[in-house]
Amino acid sequence: MQNRTPQRFFNVPNSISLFRILLVPVFLYFILKRNTGCAFAVFLGASLSDGLDGLAARLLNQKTKIGAILDPAADKLAMTTAYIILSLPAVCSPNIIPIWLTAAVLGRDILISGASLILFKVKGYKDFKPTLGGKISTIFQFLVVVFVLFFNLLEIRPSWLIILYIATMILTVTTAVHYTQIGIRILKS
Question: Among residues 11, 98, 132, 26, which one has the least CA distance to residue 63?
Fold first, then answer.
């Protein structure tokens, strides 16, 4: 008989993921109050704690099905919220994330989520692992948010941010195409 860990909702890794989800409205509050310093600290804290839930799950042998959903949900919620709110000139200055980049990032996430659901329903496929390109794209997306917040905190507008936006756009679109190709290959198999 296999030794199974009971599927408890409230454990250390799930609590960390829930905490990260609860930080999203706090981040929003500080952005809307134009307290960029606190918003930056909250976003950075939530992002840095991202690895803690996975590490805790492995070290404490507390991997759960709900944790496998909560962790990426916390990531996507934080990133989606940050991209949308930091694209609004009325709320964010002097640097804003271009709407074309926000549309690409959100579009890729919707494409991946929709394709994953289709693959699960049609093929019963559950093994969705990010590619190296996907991980690099996510790092660039994260850096966009961090740099926009950081430079807004300093109230400076570096001209090279556009290069980061374009590089992130290229990576986002490229990985969307790559994930689509992977999905089509799985559907055909």
Answer: 11
Rounded Cα distance between 127 and 84, Å, is 29
In a domain, 88, yes or no: no
Domain count, the chain: 2
Structure tokens belonging to residue 189: 């198999």
84: exposed, middle or buried (Cβ count in 10 Å: 0-12, 13-18, 19+): middle
Examine the pLDDT at 24 and tell me if it is beyond 90: yes
Neighbours of 175 (CB within 10 A): 21
Which residue matches tokens 């640097």? 95
Among all chains, which residue has been given the structure tokens 């991997």?
63
Instruction: Give this prediction's pTM.
Output: 0.87
Q: Which residue has the tokens 């600290």?
A: 41
Structural domain boundaries enclosing 61: 9-78
What digits encode the pLDDT tens for the residues 137-153? 999 999 999 999 999 99
